[in-house]
Design a protein that fits this description.
Trna Endonuclease, Chain: A, domain 1; 3 domains; alpha+beta; 5-stranded mixed β-barrel
Length: about 375
């Protein structure tokens, strides 16, 4: 088989053999059995920047459909980039019993350091993206940037994360036109099937209509945008939610933390009041603290994931909010609080108990870099 006939998945995390060429023979001289070898055993992985790569595991001898492999050399690392062997015939070696992985465990363990984050690994299974992928660097896809007044422009984008309805990536080249984004910045892009049944990746960078602070003050426009998106999860509706969030104030439920001294003083004052004047006398009584009071945002947990809750209005907290102090912050400040929380939050959840919307942590910086809609 040849690479062009099979694609990267036939090689990815698989043992394969390639014939020993003159070039390969020179580089495997430090491997046991190199002089006798007519093939090499390799293990495929993906180097995100360099592309599909075959790590040479051992020298081998092929006779018909039988193979004999020598010991490896864990002190030597030799990589075959797929471009250098894409026209060579290779054979996949069945290791369903795990014997090869066990025999060459130390080398495989080193290769596992190249494993990508879970979302990127998952995206490598998206066969619908294959026509958009780079031939060798398969995490890189061609995305067409669009903006009113400009021609659509194809740019290479490296996949770094997944949302429920979009893909996150980093721009790898500087667009020739002024889309407002530059090489090295993160963008969200979407996948669309065209009328002729082709897959197209695109990112719409057209600025949206302008707003005033008064338009967003009561949170109703944000709530309406979230409702529309939850009903129809399209790219324009998603962008609307992000842009409303970028310019909105939100309400954050917080636990009130007193100093030990203030807490002891308040407890003593309560007990003295009850003893002298009865429990009813506490109604309307005030207490002045000596030290500063900390407001610590509450955190919600869903399974093993933690989320930073914010609300479009104080009323949206409902009964839950009655147990907390409430502070109003600009959403960009809420992002900073979420990022710096001692819990490793997975995202920010807006209006968790009515009509929720989760902003994944991976796209916080996209919202932060969005241009304001406020005039």
């Amino acid at each position: 088989m040849k690479y062009s006939e099979t694609g990267f998945r036939a090689l990815y995390k698989q043992f394969c053999t390639f014939p020993v060429t003159e070039t390969v023979k020179k580089v495997i001289s430090a491997f046991p059995g190199a002089e006798q070898a007519n093939c090499v055993l390799t293990y495929g992985y993906i180097d995100t920047a360099a592309g599909v790569t075959m790590e040479i595991i051992a020298a081998g001898i092929e006779k018909g459909d039988r193979f004999r492999f020598f010991d490896g050399n864990d002190k030597v690392t030799i990589k075959l980039r797929i471009g250098s062997v894409e026209n060579e015939d290779f054979s996949i070696i069945d290791d369903s019993d795990g014997n090869l992985k066990k025999r060459y465990a130390d080398k495989i363990e080193m290769i596992n350091d190249y494993d990508a984050p879970e979302d990127v690994e998952k995206s490598r299974g998206f066969t619908f993206l294959d026509n958009c992928r780079d031939k060798y660097c398969v995490d890189d896809v061609l995305v067409f940037l669009t903006k009113d007044g400009l021609d659509p422009e194809g740019c290479w984008v490296r996949i770094i994360g997944l949302g429920d309805h979009f893909i996150m990536g980093t721009l790898l080249n500087e667009p020739a036109q002024n889309f407002g984004y530059h090489s090295g910045e993160k963008i969200a892009f979407f996948v669309e099937r065209t009328k002729d049944d082709k897959i197209l990746c695109y990112s719409n960078m057209t600025p949206s209509m302008k707003l005033t602070a008064e338009d967003l003050a009561d949170g109703s426009m944000l709530r309406n945008a979230i409702h529309i998106f939850n009903q129809e999860r399209t790219e324009p509706h998603f962008i609307d939610v992000l842009e409303f969030l970028r310019d909105s104030n939100v309400w954050i439920p917080c636990n009130t933390i007193m100093s030990d001294e203030d807490y002891a003083d308040m407890e003593r004052a309560i007990m003295e009041t009850i003893e002298n004047d009865g429990p009813d006398s506490l109604l309307g009584k005030t207490f002045t603290n000596k030290n500063s009071i900390r407001l610590v945002p509450d955190i919600l947990q869903n399974g093993e994931k933690f989320f930073f809750p914010v609300f479009s209005s104080a009323e949206e907290m409902g009964e839950y909010g009655s147990h907390f102090s409430k502070i109003e912050k600009h959403f960009l400040e809420a992002i900073d609080l979420a990022v710096n929380n001692k819990q490793n939050v997975s995202g920010i959840v807006i209006d968790a108990f009515t009509e929720p919307f989760v902003l994944e942590r991976e796209i916080f910086d996209i919202v932060q870099k969005m241009k304001t809609r406020i005039d």
